[in-house]
Amino acid sequence: MNYLLKGTFWLLLIALSFASVSCVKDVDFEQADDFATTQKVDLDLIFFDLDTSNFVDVVTEEVILVIRDTTRLEFLDDTFIQDNLVQIDFLFQYENTFSQGFFNRAVFLNEQDDILYETSFEVDPSLNGEIETTQFTEIVIAPELDSIKNAIKMFIELTLQPNGQPLEGTLGHKSKAVYTLEFSDL
Amino acid sequence: MRQLVYLFILCLGFNVLGQNKQLLYNVDNLPQTLLLNPGASHSFEKHIGIPFFSGFSLSAGSSGISVYDIFQEGGDFNARVRDAIFNLSDKDFFTVNEQIEIASFGWKPRFKDIYYSGGVYQELDAIVYFPRDLAILAYEGNASYIDVPFEFNDLSVAAEALTVYHFGVNKQVSKKLRLGARIKLYSSIVNVNSTNNRGQFITRTTPEGDNFYSHEVQNASVRANTSGLVSIIEQEASPVARAILSKNLGIGLDVGGTYTLSEKWTASGSLLDIGAVFHRDDVNNYELTGSYDLQGIEFIFPQVLDGTATTPYWENLEDEIEEQLPFNDSLQVNYTTWRPIKANAGLNYGFGKNLFGDCDCTNGGKNQYESNVGLQFFAIKRPRAINSALTAYYDRRWNRLLRTKLTYTLDAFSKRNVGLLLSANIKNFNVYLAADNLLDYPNLAKAYNASLQLGFQFTFEPD
Q: Which parts of the sequence belong to the DUF5723 domain (chain B) (predicted)?
């Protein structure tokens, strides 16, 4: 037992000598509370390619002036998006060979189909059948952003603007959004 | 994202070559040297450890960053976090290794130059490689990295807790050569392994495509295997029974030897943990495989006819992703993990007083000098690479009571690792304490790695 006591004494002495010179200093772990970063996620949104047939009624063969399509956007309801989304940069692009112009509406709806947010712009007509490119950007921040956060559906509506010319051509659409997310709480 | 940041900050606390015990290697009065080289020369003819206290070691390390690098007072904390994420590479890693000897014993039969040793120890070993690509994606998003691939093979984690039952033999096979071997039975308590992941995510610009980009997951094969984990987490099962003997057993072998080159020169080497654990019980696997290419949602503008439902684009998208990129969390496929094999080698020069007296036929030709200098090499096979270290040392017996070993270790991550072993013998009672990275002791926050070994035991040397 005497050995044990002496041994323990030696070990304690040695350990204390280590401990007396060792420490963790000049650091501040509270800074973890200050953590913040900005994430930018660049994602495609909607695309389509239309031609004359999309604007002619299959039954009556009459011109359809307004067409619309809708999708749900379930990710808008995600807690992570709800808590951290601070900005959306939309980019819509049309390539039009119709001689007619179009009026574009991008509309965000809630579950009850109430319109919460809407953005619209003119799509330029083509001259001589060449591709006419129209780009439209929209930056959405608070408080308007909250309307989009409360939405769950989106539709795009195109209104044909007749000009007396034959209805013939193609209309290509691309869109994307850059979602800016800020985290400050871990 | 949040979990990744937590993991990153947590890993900073665990800092490299977790299992290098350069301070205990070739220290012939400590039984622990037999665990590092079963064919080591040793000065004792019997030993017994105090249960749970004979050998404790803890080491933690980071190959590329210290706690101070992130949490130093003043300055811009977020800028330092960002610098760390971008400065670390996918070769950087964080490790922690802990060993507790539960039982340790050994003896030399009379009139035989052979030494038997055995025991039980519990070990925890974990290595997490820095998942650089995924960390950048989570930290900044993809907007600044269009056409830049994010590789899934950055994700590499291996962690295990196990109990090891071992028995070894150490024998002088010739005047110059001592050989040893140790057989090990591994009983895995918990294992988590995700090391052979493949695939990439890329946001590609597509000027001729349907939309601005093509978001592609290519040839994903991400798999995580676990054993012993689900029953602890979900069924709150006690790990104690598994610690004694689990159904996930393995077998391993240590081999080593010491060769006397001349009166003053000896060479030694060992290979440790040549073995594997076979996971057959409480196994769960998680797997994500496949490829997917997303360009957004394609509107088809169907002409609205009476009774026609709208197209469920979102549901279709989810179904498509689930079909082409399935995530399976209910697999129970047995798997095998190889133990991280380790190699030690040493070259020792003894000088000063020969404690065994002049070499003659009465001492069997053994030499035990009061001072030794030498070089040691250590390497460990890790999931991504073989990590190695080179140590120079000065080992001195000051008297019958005190022995010290001073080491300088060089590896890819630290050029200022000085360690010290203090071993005290009061009659047959031995106590030792070893620690490295002493130059960082004034402020451990700046250390890239640190290790500590200590123990209490009885060793019996011949009179």
A: 38-436
Which residues lie closer than 8 Å to B305 by C-beta, 6 or more apart? none
B297 and A74 within 8 Å at the Cβ level: the answer is no
Domain positions in chain A are 38-183
Q: What is the CATH number of domain B1-460?
A: 2.40.160
A47 touching B, CB under 8 A?
Answer: yes
Residues B17 and A74: their CA atoms lie apart, in Å, by: 46
Task: Tell me the per-residue pLDDT of B312-331, one tens digit each, with 9 for 90 and over.
Answer: 999 999 999 999 999 999 89
Enter the tokens of residue A116: 């919460």
Please report, in tens digits, the pLDDT of each residue of chain A (186 residues total): 455 556 555 555 665 566 555 677 788 888 888 888 999 999 999 999 999 999 999 888 899 999 999 999 999 999 999 999 999 999 999 999 999 999 999 999 999 999 999 999 999 999 988 999 999 999 999 999 999 999 999 999 999 999 999 999 999 999 999 999 998 765
Q: Output the furthest CA–CA distance in chain B (Å, rounded).
A: 109
SS3 B320: helix
Residues B271/B197, Cβ–Cβ less than 8 Å: no
CB atoms closer than 10 angstroms to residue B323? 10
Asked if the Cβ–Cβ distance from A40 to B78 is below 8 Å, we say no
Q: Does residue B430 contact residue B461 with C-beta atoms inside 8 Å?
A: no
Q: How far apart are CA B414 and CA B449, in angstroms?
A: 8
- Asked if the C-beta of B13 comes within 8 angstroms of chain A's C-beta atoms, the answer is no
- β-strand B429-435 against B417-426: which pairing, if any? antiparallel
Nearest CA in chain B to A27: B72
Could you give the 3-state DSSP secondary structure of residue B226? strand
DSSP chain A: -HHHHHHHHHHHHHHHHHHHH----SB-GGGGGG--EEEEEEEEEEEEEEEGGGGB-TTT-PBP-EEEEEEE-GGGG-HHHHHHEEEEEEEEEEEE-SSSEEEEEEEEE-TT--EEEEEEEEEPPPSTT--EEEEEEEEEETTHHHHHHT--EEEEEEEEE--SS----EEEEEEEEEEEEEE---
pLDDT at A11: 55
**Superfamily, domain A38-183:** icosahedral virus (2.60.120.660)
The single residue listed with the structure tokens 């890329």 is B202
Q: How far is A7 from chain B (nearest CA, A)?
A: 6
How do the domains of chain B map onto residue ranges?
Answer: 1-460
Which pair of tokens denotes residue B76? Answer: 């811009």
Residue B360 pLDDT: 47
